[in-house]
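Researcher: Go.
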Amino acid sequence: MVTHPTGTAQDQCHRCGGLMVREEVREVNMVGWRCVMCGEHIDPLILEHRRKMRTPEGAKRLLEKAGIAELN
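Model: Structure:
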């Protein structure tokens, strides 16, 4: 895992206001953000799930998929 500090004001954690640093997760070949204060982690997959959870239909589909995954 590689982290890169940034210096822009928009890199504040929405949860605690701490500094967000760019984080490369090599296992899944994805780049995200991690808060150095509280550990909040944001990546494209998390943002997509949060976007889908905003609507009742999207939340229902995600929860149905989660239920299927638990059975396997």
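Model: The CA atoms of residues 7 and 19 lie 9 Å apart.
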